[in-house]
Amino acid sequence: VLQDIVTASLIGTHNVNWTTWCVAKKFGMVGRESIYDRKTGRFIYERHQKTPVVKEALRELFHDKFDLKSTEVILNRIRNSEIQIEWVDVDKFSKLAEPLLDHTTKYYSSPASVDKAILDLVKNRLLKTKRRLICARCGKWQLAVITKEIKENLHCKYCKGRQITNTFYSDHDLVKIIQKKHNGKKLSGEENQRFKRSWKVASLIETYGKNASIVLAGHGVGADTGARILRNMTDQELMYKQIYEAERQY
Prior knowledge:
Blueprint: H1 2-10, H2 14-26, H3 38-47, H4 52-65, H5 68-79, H6 98-101, H7 116-128, E1 130-135, E2 142-146, E3 164-168, H8 174-182, H9 189-208, H10 210-216, H11 223-232, H12 236-249
Helix pairs in contact: 2-3, 2-4, 8-9, 9-10, 9-11, 10-11, 11-12
């Protein structure tokens, strides 16, 4: 019964979508080089709920993240009055209780309470993330580089433009889309969306410099979320806290 309740509560969450995506890769349903997509992960979960793919994803998730046996023991001890529940009136919820009570912030810690050691881990990971820089104007110049090696003032060595966009290291399609647009060819609806998004990213990098590249290296942090983080940034510590929060929500 407990496993059924937890399974139902996991539907649509990052934990189950991500694990399903990883298992789908092992089963060959998703290409080895494919980049994680939240909607696709959820689609696979919902479409294949009664297949070995989802069963294995849930098995891994329960094994790695949920101690159902110990939880069952505690619940039984509460039922048998071996553990007493004490009611305490408080004016403010604890940092541990806040995310449990707020459905909009499910599974993430308040950024104000993030430990410095965690922030250091986040910072190191972001700075070591490999990204692909591309000139959004001509598409002729591109560079694969880790975030910490990205220079503050970027420009294209061919057209001298400062509109440099930033994407996944494994994204080889965006440069083709930009070149296609530059050559006056018509873009499809999806290509046009990607082209516009690349210019949003380029605008952030031109305005905020290297900090924009650091923010965009965050897992699930796109142009809109990145713009909000950068707009609200007062110092780097707050920036990393907000990246951490955005990743947890994603």
